[in-house]
Amino acid sequence: MARRPIIAGNWKMNMTRAQAAQLITELKPLVADADAEVVICVPYTDIDTAVTLCKGSNIKVGAENVAWAEKGAFTGEISADMLLELGTEYVIIGHSERRQYFGETDASVNARLKTAIAKGLKPIVCVGETLEERESGKTDDVIETQVKGAFDGVSAEDAAKVVIAYEPVWAIGTGKTATSEQAEETIKAIRGVMAGLYGAAVADAVRIQYGGSMNPKNVKELMAQPDIDGGLIGGASLKAVDFSQVVNYKD
Ligand code: PEP
Asked: What's the whole-number average pLDDT of the chain?
């Protein structure tokens, strides 16, 4: 089955509204003819601006997190309804920076994922091992635990529509990219976990991105791997030309 590549930017905590408007205005014409699905996941305060500016273009807008609760006493959280009202389509869940700095766990990732699905947001669920875990040969076990934890209680029909981002923690923002063989091997293992949970058809349908210092120079080789269906791009998504070169990796 052909899986449409998806390249998503993760702006993290960067870009004021004015900077966001400038970047999107520059980006739109550069990615207008892309074959891949193009997404920018932006800070909450940029969503309104991004949705307005991306209207009528091929760029879809995502958030960087979503609350598991529908509403209520959850100071600092943003609900799915709030995101949907602004026109948000995608949402990143369980990014390693959330796990590392904000106490996100497989259980909270699972709760956020189920809420996103129930509300109709399109989730990008992040998994990935630390350097210590890789060096001690635990990568496959860590990935399996994270994937099983994230998808606990999610139906096969819903699981097939979730995007998974494999992001080795040691490759995020460090300039160290996993080799295309390492990325392919672990992404293949993730597909194997999905096959175990849901069967071959879902494993074949689910899109799995690589993330971790993906950039215009290494994107072609990574995207040539049979199981890599796209990228989650941090640093290189903050410059219109760089991000467009990643999006247009086939050119
Ligand atoms: C990310 O934030 O998901 C990421 C992959 O960052 P970078 O591309 O900067 O490594």
From this structure: 97
Q: Whose CA is nearest to atom 7 of ligand 1?
A: 234
- Domain containing 167 — which CATH number? 3.20.20.70
The whole-angstrom separation of Cα 142 and Cα 196 is 16
Q: Is residue 138 part of a domain?
A: yes
Assess contact for 59 and 48: CB atoms under 8 A: no
Q: Does the CB atom of residue 172 touch ligand 1 within 6 A?
A: yes
Q: How far is Cα of residue 68 from the mean position of the Cα atoms in its chain? A: 18
Q: Pairing relation of β-strands 122-127 and 90-93?
A: parallel
Q: Is 1 inside any structural domain?
A: no
Q: Which domain holds residue 31?
A: 6-247
The structural domain count of the chain equals 1
Nearest CA to ligand 1 atom 6: 234
Instruction: Give pTM, 2 decimals.
Output: 0.97
The verdict on residue 178 lying in a domain is yes
Q: pLDDT band at residue 210, thresholds of 50, 70 and 90?
A: very high
- Tell me whether residue 96 is in a domain: yes
CA distance 151 to 194: 9
Residue ranges of alpha helices (H) inside 32-179 are 44-54, 80-86, 96-101, 106-119, 131-135, 139-151, 156-159
